[in-house]
Q: What sequence folds into this?
């Protein structure tokens, strides 16, 4: 089975895990990784069965990461979009004034409403664009692998951008984000792959510290990067691949149909 | 009899043209009928104005915002909420998120709860593992996650009503219906018949009520009394929705029931406005539904109001506060009334959140007998 992973710097953890596993994981015997920093993948466009770009920088990134200046979807049995802002960051603005328990002097908001806002926000992400692009050129199985929650070590850094995470507990992630992401994936006809359960802090919406140490990311090419509490390591990547394999077993009939 | 002496002595002699049917209505195009309202007090862009009531009240909220007036929004939505989600969760529709308040009794009930003079009943409607608020049945599209969440959300709205009472200078309330459903043993009123948008209809508990002139008059008087006890100074601007009933449970023909209902509401509004200095009446009902307009402001279903009708009403509303008079604006700008005003044309049936419309799904289809 041949897979393709498309995304931003978070793809680094999956790539590292893949290499540590010796280029083989369950039924997957080949995996091609296309990654570009931040929002650069937004410059992709459909062309026949492929995704290409007119942007010279992105073209370089595609060659550097995946060995080709175009992503020929027909070459793969499935495509997984990973990270690409499909996660928590979308919610900071809504939580600046409202809170599901009306704490911190904020107005009450229902979990249903918060979840809907999140779903709307996810539609504005790079991941959503990539999913729609892949869907426009191929009917093969597509998997959306969520952006990891930031590492719990971030709590000690006083990072203002993520300060809102300290105001909510894990239930907000479980009751609002997960249903929102699942609804959106259903609408797009793609498969939702959540963050591996054991990597989640049980109390707060963070990834446990051990998964964000020695992280992998993009430094021009796939590489270990400085701890930034945003990127995850190979251990995390292996757990994602484990969950991916489990998901693919359920998706196999669809894969056969699209072949 | 001396003719000149007679004409100088009777009260009609010195009246302005708008006091005479021929000059004010019969001999001019209907869209040029103007000067229909002399407000008892003035508002300016800095005056905090609250809005609530039936579906048509939403047009007033939107028009206030569009013209730069201070529409008082006591329940601001979270940041970056899409317009569709704001609408689905009832943000930015009325000053507070009660949903439609069709009857005077329901307004009185909400205001009384908000200031703590009475307490909401414990009734909550379970629905497939979720929970529906009987008093805001369409608020949470998928229902509330728990009774606690429902009550917390309702409390936010009650706080918003209280904040409105403490802050707003003018409260525009659009009367919509005389018909309602009540909980007979406990005496409270629902915004919608139980069973339509949640809950289960129980004929032993739920009863139809068609409020009379006296009851509506008393409800509004009591509402004013509650408002005054909380804070003196708020002014009440009443309007009557020109939107006909979707359905009636009165056993009358829906046309007869509509005219009955609107006539009573119009009469109560007029009575209160004539009696009280802090109550005024704006004739949106007349500007849309009265016969000189020949139904031209209604959509094909003779219920929804066309954008040009809304625009005509809102231009008449703002004209005493310095906007060009309706007729003058029309002459200056374009031949069609819709072009006289500055709001974008849109389908009001699409834009307006109208819980009563849910009843239409129970109407028999064409050719279907009942």
A:
């Amino acid at each position: 089975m041949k897979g393709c992973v498309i995304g931003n710097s978070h793809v680094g953890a999956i790539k590292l895990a893949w290499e540590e596993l010796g280029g083989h994981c369950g039924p997957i015997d080949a995996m091609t990784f296309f990654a570009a920093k931040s929002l650069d993948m937004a410059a992709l466009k459909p062309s026949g069965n492929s995704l290409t770009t007119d942007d010279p920088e992105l073209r370089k990134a595609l060659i550097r990461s995946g060995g080709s200046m175009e992503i020929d979807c027909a070459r793969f049995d499935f495509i997984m979009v990973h990270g690409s802002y499909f996660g928590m960051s979308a919610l900071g603005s809504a939580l600046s004034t409202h809170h599901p328990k009306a704490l911190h002097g904020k107005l009450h908001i229902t979990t249903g409403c918060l979840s809907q806002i999140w779903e709307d926000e996810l539609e504005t992400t790079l991941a959503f664009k990539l999913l729609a692009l892949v869907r426009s050129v191929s009917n093969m199985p597509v998997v959306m692998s969520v952006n990891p929650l930031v590492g719990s070590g971030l709590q000690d850094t006083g990072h203002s951008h993520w300060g809102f995470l300290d105001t909510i507990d894990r239930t907000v992630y479980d009751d609002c984000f997960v249903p929102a992401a699942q609804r959106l994936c259903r609408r797009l006809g793609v498969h939702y792959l959540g963050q591996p359960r054991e990597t989640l802090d049980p109390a707060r919406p963070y990834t446990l510290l051990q998964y964000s140490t020695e992280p992998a990311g993009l430094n021009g090419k796939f590489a270990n990067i400085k701890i930034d509490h945003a990127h995850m390591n190979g251990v995390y990547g292996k757990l994602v691949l484990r969950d991916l394999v489990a998901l693919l077993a359920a998706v196999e009939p669809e894969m056969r149909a699209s072949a | 009899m001396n003719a000149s002496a007679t004409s100088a002595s009777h009260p009609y002699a010195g009246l302005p043209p708008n006091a005479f049917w021929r000059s004010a209505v019969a001999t001019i195009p209907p869209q040029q009928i103007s000067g229909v309202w002399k407000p008892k007090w003035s508002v300016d862009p800095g005056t905090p104005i609250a809005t609530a009531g039936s579906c048509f009240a939403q047009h007033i909220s939107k028009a206030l915002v569009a013209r730069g007036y201070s529409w008082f929004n006591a329940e601001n939505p979270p940041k970056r909420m899409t317009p569709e989600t704001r609408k689905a969760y009832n943000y930015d529709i009325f000053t507070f998120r009660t949903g439609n308040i069709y009857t005077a009794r329901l307004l009185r009930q909400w205001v009384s709860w908000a200031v703590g003079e009475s307490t909401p009943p414990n009734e909550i409607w379970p629905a497939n593992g979720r929970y529906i608020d009987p008093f805001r049945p369409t608020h949470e599209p998928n229902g509330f996650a728990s009774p606690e969440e429902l009550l917390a959300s309702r409390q936010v709205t009650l706080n918003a009503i209280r904040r409105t009472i403490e802050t707003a200078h003018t409260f525009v309330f659009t009367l919509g219906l005389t018909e309602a459903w009540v909980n007979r043993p406990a005496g409270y009123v629902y915004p919608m018949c139980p069973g339509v948008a949640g809950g289960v209809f129980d004929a032993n508990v739920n009863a139809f009520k068609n409020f009379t002139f006296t009851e509506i008059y008393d409800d509004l008087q009591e509402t004013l009394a509650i408002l005054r006890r909380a804070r003196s100074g708020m002014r009440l601007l009443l309007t009557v929705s020109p939107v006909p009933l979707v359905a009636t449970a009165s056993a009358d023909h829906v046309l007869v029931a509509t005219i009955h209902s609107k006539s009573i509401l119009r009469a109560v509004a007029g009575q209160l406005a004539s009696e009280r200095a802090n109550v005024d009446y704006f004739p949106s009902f007349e500007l849309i539904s009265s016969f000189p307009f020949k139904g031209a402001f209604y959509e094909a279903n003779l219920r929804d109001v066309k954008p040009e009708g809304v625009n005509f009403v809102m231009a008449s509303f703002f004209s005493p506060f310095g906007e060009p008079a309706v007729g003058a604006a029309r002459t200056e700008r374009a031949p069609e009334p819709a072009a006289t005003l500055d709001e974008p044309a849109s389908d009001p049936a699409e834009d307006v959140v109208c819980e009563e419309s849910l009843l239409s799904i129970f109407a028999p289809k064409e050719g279907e007998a009942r």
